[in-house]
Write a structure and sequence with these properties.
Layout: H1 2-28, E1 33-38, E2 45-48, H2 53-59, E3 78-83, H3 90-93, H4 98-102, E4 105-107, E5 117-120, E6 129-140, E7 145-154, E8 165-170, E9 177-182, E10 192-198, H5 204-210, E11 217-224, E12 236-242, H6 246-259, E13 265-271, H7 280-289, E14 293-299, E15 312-313, H8 316-323, E16 330-336, H9 338-350, E17 356-360
Parallel strand pairs: 1-5, 12-13, 12-16, 13-14, 14-15, 16-17
Antiparallel strand pairs: 1-2, 3-4, 3-5, 6-7, 6-11, 7-10, 8-9, 8-11
Helix pairs in contact: 8-9
The structure holds flavin-adenine dinucleotide and FE2/S2 (inorganic) cluster.
Residues 66-68, 70-77, 107, 109 line the site of FE2/S2 (inorganic) cluster.
């Protein structure tokens, strides 16, 4: 008991001291204007010291990926800091490999600018733009899921790859924040970005998006994401999603069939109960048009007495295991909760598939 009390008091003291240091730093220390040099550019930016590197980049309209909005949980905001970033913080080590740390890779949302700083980022990120859009429609898909269709104003078109995401700017009491949402509309609709958004109770981004009405304006940056469809039509495509993870998958499937009408593709979609099922009829219609497209929905929760369901049951990795033969050349895209991704990856690897892209959300 005494041991427990000492541990709790020590932890409390440490947190309190860290908090006091942060407040003291904010109030008392002025780092002045610092130079921010990107890719050994000819003209370094001048930024206010004391901000995070991520905030300074955004203030200068350099939009690197930051899917968690700077909370230090997604690991998407990696940049190479050549000099001036200070020591690697404990909040970064969980999301950086040893090799990355040795190569001076840092999380931009955790690095504070306290002196002149020299960084390297991929050139293509310098082309990421802020888009202004108007809400064309907002439709309920389920009790907590909405489909939101945005028509682009400026620039009027976006060029993206299937499976990529945008970062929507949402207002918050502490100023604008960014949250990642996958593009569910296909790439051949360049003037539209459609989203599928699950409402997270109390969540800043999802509440903002759920309250939008047609005619409202929305800003986002993008596109971001590493998904890259294999252009070899003999490679079978496997899409596995859960919840709002259907968004990038819908984009992949429509884009795929516009380009390769004969291509083999499986869609596995995991839902808890019938009330979470959406887009099933739409995908079944598509499967009638494209005979090599197969749709499997599975419900994971025990079926209630009033639920009628003649599809699969159990977690979605069980359906993947049941339907896929081993030894076929495949590429897989997995989008959903981490546990689903872990289980499906295991099954796919057992079947000989290692070309796997995934987004956890
Ligand atoms: C690459 C990528 C793509 C994504 N695509 C989509 C998409 O297409 N559709 C979509 O709806 N979301 C998507 N997300 C998730 C999205 O970015 C937000 O994280 C999510 O909407 C919650 O943000 P929020 O601002 O509403 O909640 P926050 O204000 O960030 O969080 C509020 C509270 O809810 C908790 N919380 C945060 N996220 C979740 C969650 N998922 N489940 C339960 N509790 C949570 C937080 O810990 C916090 O306590 C994606 C995420 C990534 C990384
Ligand atoms: S923005 Fe998510 S870890 Fe930095």
């Amino acid at each position: 008991m005494i041991y427990l009390l000492s541990v709790v008091s020590f932890a409390g003291l440490t947190v309190a001291l860290a908090g006091m240091l942060m407040i003291a730093e904010r109030l008392l220390i002025n780092y002045g204007i610092c130079k921010l040099d990107i890719n050994a550019g000819e003209k370094p930016l001048e930024v206010d010291g004391g901000q995070t590197l991520l905030a300074s980049l955004y203030a200068n309209e350099i939009f690197i990926p930051s899917a968690c909005g700077g909370k230090g949980t997604c690991g998407h905001c990696k940049v190479t800091v050549i000099a001036g970033g200070g020591p690697v913080l404990p909040t970064e080590t969980l999301l950086l490999t040893r090799k990355e740390i040795r190569s001076n890779v840092r999380l931009a949302c955790q690095v504070k600018i306290r002196e002149d700083i020299y960084i390297r980022i991929p050139e293509d990120l310098l082309n990421i733009r802020m888009y202004t859009t108007t809400v064309e429609s907002s439709v309920d898909l389920t009790y907590d899921m909405k489909e939101i269709r945005l028509r682009l104003n400026d620039p009027p078109n976006i060029s993206h790859r299937p499976g990529q995401y945008v970062q929507v700017q949402a207002p918050s009491p502490d100023g604008p924040v960014f949250r990642a949402y996958s593009i569910s509309s296909p790439v051949y609709e360049p003037d539209i970005v459609q989203l599928v958004v699950r409402l997270v109770p109390g969540g800043i981004g999802s509440t903002y998006l759920h309250n939008l009405k047609p005619g409202d304006y929305v800003n986002f940056t993008g596109p971001f994401g590493e998904f890259l469809l294999n252009p070899d039509p003999s490679v079978e495509i496997i899409c596995v999603g859960g919840g709002c993870g259907i968004a990038p998958i819908r984009n992949i499937i429509y884009t795929l069939y516009e380009q390769w009408p004969d291509r083999a593709c499986w869609l596995f979609f995991g839902c808890r109960a019938t009330r979470d099922v959406f887009y099933l009829e739409e995908f079944e219609e598509l499967a009638k048009k494209y005979p090599n497209f197969h749709v499997v929905y599975a419900l994971s929760d025990q079926l209630g007495e009033d639920e009628k369901w003649d599809g699969e049951t159990g977690f979605i990795h069980l359906s993947v295991d049941k339907y896929l033969e081993p030894g076929v050349r495949r590429q897989a895209f997995l989008c959903g909760p981490p546990l689903m991704i872990e289980a499906v990856t295991r099954v796919l690897k057992e079947k000989g598939t290692s070309d796997i892209f995934y987004d956890e959300f």
